[in-house]
Amino acid sequence: MSRYKRTSVKKPVYLLDTTLREGEQTPGVAFTIEQKLEIARKLDEAGIDMIEAGHPAVAPDVEKAVRLIVKEGLQAEIIGHSRAVKTDIEKAAECEVDRIAIFYGVSDIHLKYKHKVSREEALQIIAEHIEFAKSHGVKVRFTAEDASRTDIDFLIQVVKTAHEAGADRVSLADTVGILTPFRAKMLFETVKKAVPTVELDVHAHNDLGMAVANSLAAFEGGATAIHVTINGIGERCGIASLQEVAVALKVHYNIDTVDLRKLPELSKLVEKYTGIVLPPHAPVVGDNAFVHKAGVHVAGVLANPQTYEPYPPELVGRTRDWVIDKYTGKKAVKARLEKLGVQVTDQELELIVRKIKERTSVRHWRDEDLLELVEEVTGRRVMLRPPEKLEALVWIKCESNIYTTAIARRIAAIPGVVEVMEITGEYDIVARVSVRDQAELNNIVETIREVKGVQSTHTQLVLKKLET
Ligand code: COA
Ligand code: ZN
User: Fold this and answer.
1) How remote is the CA of residue 88 from the centroid of ligand 1, in Å?
2) Which of 129, 136, 227, 297 is labelled catalytic?
3) Of the residues 378, 403, 435, which one is the last residue of a structural domain?
């Protein structure tokens, strides 16, 4: 590969994305080769430094995907994963990857129960396989699996052995996610001090929710590459997420890694291909990440967004908003009405806010509801459309790889949807929708169709309703 690689430029820290390898180890996830190519291309466009494209010995389609990703000629360094097994290494080398990453469990638990070898034998196996990989003319990373539960003196011996055998990078994996940030920093500082010429990667699992914090702490301790996946997917609870690590590196250390504005798109792509939808409060890319609610917060944000935002949404290509419900205050409502081109007096505003707080059955005040309330309170006409109600039933077919309940929850959150039922038969979900006109109905149906996992819809207008 003579093409320029981003890793040929020295940076304070590289990001290694392993969505295609670690991410595909997520239960229920299997990317097609086309999807892998698309993800790899999009990661490369965003400026990722390294892509761990897969473990070619796992299955023929994994091998094929790795081969094709290599052929794309991306600027990211392409890595093939491998056990310390010669046939695995040969397969990865045949794919012509830039680097082979050889992993081996080095804690006593792994040595005793998995590999059934002594520490001395393990060192020999590690050295032998790294040398074998190097003989194929590729760069080699060694991953000390379960490093965080490995006796520190032995771990240093492992890192030295791997480095001397030809691995310029060694990854210290917190395989079961048991580090704390303090211990992570200490671990990396200790190893780096003992083997100063080696470059260290951190691979932090998220079993205790600390993968991002531990990755940053490892970076502070001397790691120069952080392993991430889009949306943090991976074995069990996954690993550090690309979006959280990339933004945290910018916010805390002013380090530029990938194009942060591309993160929402990458996240959505992986939600679509995995069927795993992030919750609305997910950092960076979640629907609510820049949506404010409490009156005090909105008043603060209107005065200066810094009051309740750690960084501006524009940094990640997003915009801010606020919602109106019983938690609202006068400033939030006034600003929302001004946005809608409506002026009210101070007394009217007081009354509007009081009524909003009384009508607690409304979970989310849409602009139309708010304008209707303004008309009720002020007696002035502020709405363009006559307030008629139109009801419709939207029958929804779902894709089989996404939990129906997750889709139903998303649909239930769409303003205008008043009821959602999971059903048996030809359709999976039926939603009852209450709207003012055909245009609004079209919008809602479009929004439903955009929900991840919705395959098709069939809409029926309600002509008449009989009370029972
Ligand atoms: N280096 C060398 N050997 C290793 C190893 C390593 N890092 N990690 C595990 N092994 C060995 C085990 O000791 C065991 O060997 P044994 O069969 O001689 O007891 C074997 O690999 C794992 O058992 P099993 O999965 O039953 O072996 P297999 O030959 O049927 O399949 C794979 C091996 C790798 C093809 C298969 O497990 C697979 O597709 N795995 C997906 C990738 C993966 O597990 N990745 C882990 C990333 S952290
Ligand atoms: Zn892992």
Assistant:
1) 10
2) 297
3) 378
Question: Looking at the CA of 113, which ligand is closest?
Answer: 1
The answer to whether 128 and 164 are in contact (CB under 8 A) is no
Q: What is the pTM of this model?
A: 0.85
Residue 384 reports pLDDT greater than 90: no
Distance CA 248, CA 297 (A): 23
Instruction: Using the predicted structure, report yes or no on whether residue 410 has a pLDDT greater than 70.
Output: yes
State residue 1's pLDDT score: 47
**Is residue 297 among the annotated active site residues?**
yes
Query: What is the C-alpha separation between 361 and 190, in angstroms, rounded?
Result: 58
Taking the centre of ligand 2 as the mean of its atom positions, its distance from the CA of residue 12, in whole angstroms, is 23
Confidence of residue 385 (pLDDT cuts 50, 70, 90): low
Considering the domain architecture, whether residues 298 and 433 belong to the same structural domain is answered as: no
Q: Do 320 and 436 share a domain, yes or no?
A: no
Backbone angles phi, psi at 142, to 5 degrees: -110, 135
Q: How far is the CA of 137 from the centre of ligand 2 (A)?
A: 26
- Is residue 466 in a domain? no
Report how far residue 299's alpha carbon sits from residue 279's, in angstroms, rounded to the nearest whole number: 26
For residues 344 and 394, state if they share a domain.
no
Q: Which atom of ligand 1 is nearest to the CA of 58?
A: 39
Cα 376 → chain centroid? 44
Residue among 25, 106, 99, 26 at smallest CA distance from 66? 99
Ligand 1 atom showing the smallest separation from residue 145 Cα: 48
Whose Cα sits closest to atom 21 in ligand 1?
83
Tell me which ligand sits closest to the C-alpha of residue 129. Answer: 1
Instruction: Read off the CATH number of the domain in which 82 is found.
Output: 3.20.20.70
CB-based contact 324:284 (threshold 8 Å): no
Does 282 fall in a domain?
no
Give the bridge partners for 395, in sequence order.
Answer: 430, 458
CB under 6 Å to ligand 1: residues?
A: 55, 57-58, 83-85, 103-104, 114-115
Cα-to-centroid distance, 82 and ligand 1 (Å): 10
Nearest bound ligand to the CA of residue 234 = 2
Provide the domain limits for residue 34: 6-274
